[in-house]
Task: inverse folding
């Protein structure tokens, strides 16, 4: 039995730290950091390459559980879901059940006796956006002032036309500005989650945790 988590880029680092802080057991067979990183997580490096990685895993008879995390960006959740479902149906030459739907809890389907497919579309399976929008909902109460001030200053600079990033990148700028004003400025998102610069106990993280637990078989 093999299990795989397919991600666009580095999302798995921050999300893995979140799962650890929530005391979620690791996937069965991947309890060491090395196996988790080298075997369980499959990084596509871009949205355009996700389907290629997915096809490779679907063709392996050993893989029983596949989780896929992609960003909605400005394309939207339905378009992302349709693309992934279409690729899976083409490789396996079958169709998803009509009642298999994307909800705020993500997408999950026992597609075959030996294959479960789970899909999570960042940030929340509803809205456009990406990982930084998901993390933006996990700002601790004690640092809400920093978050609000960072948001105000970025908007001020945008209005004054002093920024070089495009509108879709605004949330990335906001999140990294927030991290720049922490006790240890400029930490990576994974390290920031570990350092509690985000509050993973907030309800916004609950659905993702449930999705992960439902998608994979975990260690006892």
Result:
């Amino acid at each position: 039995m093999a299990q795989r988590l397919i991600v666009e880029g580095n999302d798995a680092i921050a999300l893995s730290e979140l799962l650890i802080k929530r005391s979620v057991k690791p996937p069965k067979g991947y309890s060491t950091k090395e196996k988790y990183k080298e075997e369980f997580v499959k990084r596509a490096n871009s949205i355009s390459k996700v389907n290629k990685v997915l096809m490779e895993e679907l063709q392996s008879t050993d893989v029983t559980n596949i989780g896929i995390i992609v960003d909605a960006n400005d394309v939207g959740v339905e378009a992302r879901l349709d693309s992934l479902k279409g690729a899976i149906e083409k490789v396996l030459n079958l169709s998803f059940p009509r009642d298999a739907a994307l909800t705020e809890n993500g997408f999950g389907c026992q597609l075959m006796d030996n294959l479960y497919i789970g899909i999570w579309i960042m940030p929340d399976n509803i809205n456009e956006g990406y990982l930084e929008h998901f993390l933006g909902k996990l700002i601790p109460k004690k640092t809400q002032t920093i978050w609000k001030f960072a948001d105000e200053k970025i908007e001020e600079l945008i209005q004054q036309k002093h920024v070089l990033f495009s509108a879709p990148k605004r949330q990335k700028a906001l999140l990294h500005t927030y991290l720049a004003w922490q006790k240890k400025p400029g930490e990576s998102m994974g390290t920031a989650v570990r350092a509690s610069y985000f509050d993973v106990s907030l309800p916004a993280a609950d659905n993702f945790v449930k999705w992960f637990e439902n998608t994979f078989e975990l260690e006892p």
About this structure: Strands lie at 2-7, 41-43, 63-71, 107-112, 115-122.
